[in-house]
Amino acid sequence: MTLIKSLLLGSAAGLVAVSAASAADLPTRKGPVAAEYVRVCSITVAGAPVVGFVLPGSDTCLKISGYVTGQMEGGNVSNSNAVVYGPAANVRNAAGNVIGQRSTQGIGSSFGRDSFGWTTRYNLTFDAVSNTAYGPLVAHAELQFNHGEGFDNTGRAGSDGGLNRAYVTWAGLTAGKANSFFSFTGGGLGWANFFSPDQKGFNQPDVLAYTASVGGGFSATLSIESPAWLEDQGSAPIALNPYLGSAVRGGTRAPDIVGAIDVSQSWGTAHLAGVGHNVRASSLVNNTTIDKWGWAADAGVSFNIPSMAGSVVGVTGAWSRNALWFSGIPDGMWGEFGSQVNGNGQGSAWGDAFSNGNGTWATPTAWTITGWANFAINPQITLGVEGSYGEITWSGALPTSMLSNSRSFIVGGVAHYDPVKNLDFEFELLYQNTKTDQPTGYVAGNGVTTTRTWQGTADGFAARFEVTRSF
Predict the structure, then answer these.
(1) How many other C-beta atoms can be found within 10 angstroms of the C-beta atom of residue 206?
(2) Where would a tag sit more exposed on the chain, N or C end, judged by fewer CB atoms within 10 A?
(3) Residue 40 is inside which H or E element, if any?
(4) In this predicted structure, what is the pLDDT of residue 398?
(5) Cβ pair 82, 449 in contact under 8 A
(6) CA pair distance 384, 399, nearest whole angstrom
């Protein structure tokens, strides 16, 4: 037994010695570099944390977010009037081609039109933020893709997609495609809009702006923005032109110039803004032109409800002259056929100016007022109500122009149910009623209309159910 132990011990010692000698002959190497793991970051921007991950080799915090929503829409559809806003006949060139078209409102029979529709949207957002000596340096980019079919679909009977917002902010500077600094509320509590000069939920302008914070929650902004042309809404009645009659838009000579004052404190927020909007068009009838400045003002206030965290009540209003978009009327509900509800009845006339065809121009004054209340019943349920009223008044119109004044209101409600984090079920129901005065030059059955009697009232509703998953 002693002999066996001696042999084993001797063998082990020999192996250790050989191993040590072999190790001494090997070249010396450094150990592997430690793996660089993803680091979580959080940088505060405008009072809210941007939580993401640090891009390797940089000091930039990147946040990726977005949402997917699937919706079903429905609403009433009935017959409508069709009336022409424009000169006595289309303007034609020497070859007989129509170059100055009369703007037609109304759709006629409802038999072939949809009363149900579907919309799917995918939104993808990137925020790149880094700290500097002058505050956060932010790049925000937002891509949005839609597919839709049938009634009131966002994809306009197919698929679309592209840039929704993309801008840089730093030390009070904002540059890029961003929310307009004119509007207080944007589009409203639901998917479809109340009367508001939106340019926040969609149709954002290109801006170059500077915001100065003066303390106490007060700030002042001066913004130069791309002009708000009504054709951006894809509205058929104005034939992709912000002017009516035989008029066509002239070249852009000036941007929209916006000035705004805002306050945000524990009680709520308030806003006051004004805009100068260049109106520039020519008439194809007699080559007369209009080149003047329109303007508009927007003001609003919202109050937090202390006894219900997350609940607010507010009111806002806008007034415009030769700057119809800024009144908020074209953005009401769906912006379809000039405040005409789903083609029901006679729509109102939209435009920043109207050529009478004789060297004179008609011009619009428009105003709106809107109120809303949003109640957070509990963390899962939120209920909201909203209402708007607006008017369009034309001055300087000839009887042959077929222009007329309109009044419209919208009322509705929105309900949200969030059973788990990042999942939202929404139901909304809105009703709109528009009354358009019979034009002084209207003669029943003269070929201008499809009916013998004036149908000046348009009303209808739309309901929407949507399921949204945010990330």
Answers:
(1) 15
(2) N
(3) strand 40-45
(4) 82
(5) yes
(6) 43
Buried b (16+ CB within 10 A) or exposed e, 28-65: eeeeeeeeeeeeebebebeeeebebebeeeeebbbbee
pTM of the model: 0.82
Q: How many CB atoms lie within 10 A of CB 333?
A: 27
Q: Quick one: 199 exposed, middle or buried, by C-beta within 10 A (0-12, 13-18, 19+)?
A: buried
Please state the rounded mean pLDDT for residues 212-218.
Answer: 95
Q: Which two tokens stand for residue 110?
A: 């409802």
The reported pLDDT for the residue numbered 312 is 97
For the chain, the distance separating the N- and C-terminal CA atoms, rounded to the nearest angstrom, is: 73
The residues pairing with 176 across neighbouring beta strands, listed in sequence order, are 167, 207
CB atoms within 10 A of CB 462: 26
Bridge-based pairing of strands 103-105 and 98-100 is unpaired
Task: Give the number of C-alpha atoms closer than 13 A to the C-alpha of residue 170, restricted to the C-beta side.
Answer: 14
Count helices and strands (H / E) in the chain. 1, 25
- Per DSSP, helices labelled H in 26-184 are none
Burial pattern 289-315, b for ≥16 Cβ within 10 A else e, equals: ebeeebbbbbbbbbebeeeeeebbbbb
CA nearest to 62, candidates 116, 138, 123, 157: 138
Confidence of residue 342 (pLDDT cuts 50, 70, 90): low
H or E element at residue 6: helix 2-25
SS3 230: helix
Q: How many residues does the chain have?
A: 471
Q: Hey, how many other C-beta atoms are within 10 angstroms of the C-beta on 419?
A: 9
To which residue do tokens 């034009």 refer?
439
